[in-house]
Design a protein that fits this description.
The protein is 54% helix and 7% strand. By secondary structure, the protein is mostly helical. The structure holds tryptophan. Tryptophan binds at residues 11-13, 15, 47, 50, 138, 141-142, 150, 152, 156.
Length: 336
């Protein structure tokens, strides 16, 4: 019997590599994760195994994994409706990654631009083989669940192409085994830019212009109020010539549900000050609820662990079936 999914199933992952998710993570991705639960069978994972591909601190990773899991719950990922889990709790990812790595070309892996960028930027000369094979682990994350769709940002498109290629290659060589997943480029997701360099995507690697959702609300407001704008005085959405103002409008529109053109008319004749105040208020209001929900989960470690176990168990129900099928097809001898 085939283990392929017959419903629309999404899988996505987020790395526990920061003390907090930022507003760009939420508006650009996590908000859609929550919405996709209504229409899809959803698998969401905190990818701790990806987080060890670069320099890191073990105690910090442990804490960040818990905080990431709590934040996903706080955002509205529902552990009853969806499968929310930590990657290392499901050993089948790493097991499948090994098999997939044996059908991945060395040259093919060498063409991954994210690896090339990251290894070029690394000044320590300590680039790991794990960082090199990371896209294969990502492919395993997706294929082990027979996901039909993968909500990802533009930066992950090449990894998803690799994933599709590996699924097709495996299927061609060993028989139909994997669903070939489609990238799910979500309409209406906001691409949030850095507040200081509004032509760059918001990222924790540019801390000055990045709004961390677990930061002190005063700090959040201050960062927004010092956002870079431009020397005009008109509130108009034009990402080309007015990237800073457009970014503020995008954030406010996403959080308030008001359209960009509504906002443009609202601020007609006003300077940037009132817009900044309103964006700051909206983000602070959102962050305040987000923080109290996150803290509720963190203050109940027993419940957090129960939910992690529940997620791991539901994930493994699917993952073990795919892996058994794969092991059989590649010619591993089964016992029991
Ligand atoms: N590589 C992704 C990132 O850095 C995270 C990730 C790991 C992921 N496994 C995944 C995303 C599977 C989607 C599907 O953002």
């Amino acid at each position: 019997m085939s283990v392929m999914a017959h419903t629309d199933r999404v899988l996505s992952g987020i790395q526990p590599t920061a003390d907090s998710f930022h507003i760009g993570n939420y508006l650009g991705a996590l908000r859609s994760w929550v919405e996709l639960q209504d229409t899809h069978e959803a698998f969401y994972t905190v990818v701790d195994q990806h987080a060890i591909t670069v320099e890191y601190d073990p105690a910090e990773l442990r804490q960040r994994t818990l905080v990431s899991f709590a934040q996903l719950l706080a955002c509205g990922v529902d552990p009853e409706r969806s499968v929310l889990f930590v990657q290392s709790h499901v050993p089948e990812h790493a097991q499948l990654a090994w098999v997939l790595s044996c059908i991945t070309g060395y040259g093919e892996a060498s063409r991954m631009t994210q690896f090339k960028d990251k290894s070029a930027r690394d000044g320590t000369g300590a680039v790991s083989v794990g960082l090199f094979t990371y896209p294969v682990l990502m492919a395993a994350d997706i294929l082990v669940y027979q996901a039909t769709g993968v909500p990802v940002g533009e930066d992950q498109r090449q990894h998803l192409e690799l994933t599709r290629g590996l699924a097709q290659r495996f299927n061609a060589r060993f028989g139909e085994t994997f669903v070939v997943p489609e990238p799910l480029i979500l309409k209406d997701t906001a691409k949030i830019k850095d507040l200081q360099e509004p032509t760059a995507k918001m990222s924790k690697s540019l801390p000055g212009g990045c709004v961390m959702l677990l930061d002190d609300p005063k700090k959040i407001a201050k960062k927004i109020k010092s956002a870079v704008t431009d020397s005009e005085t008109v509130v108009r959405f034009d990402p080309e010539t007015k990237p800073g103002v457009s970014n503020l409008l995008t954030i406010l529109s996403a959080l308030s549900g008001r359209t960009i053109s509504e906002l443009e008319s609202h601020y007609e004749g006003s300077m940037y000050g009132p817009l900044k105040v309103d964006v700051a208020d909206a983000v602070v209001e959102f962050a305040t609820t987000y923080q109290s929900r996150t803290n509720e989960y963190l203050q109940d470690p027993a419940e957090l662990h129960r939910l992690m176990e529940l997620g791991a168990q539901k994930a493994r129900e699917v993952a073990t079936r795919t892996l058994a099928d794969v092991y059989n097809r590649v010619g591993f001898v089964a016992i029991k």
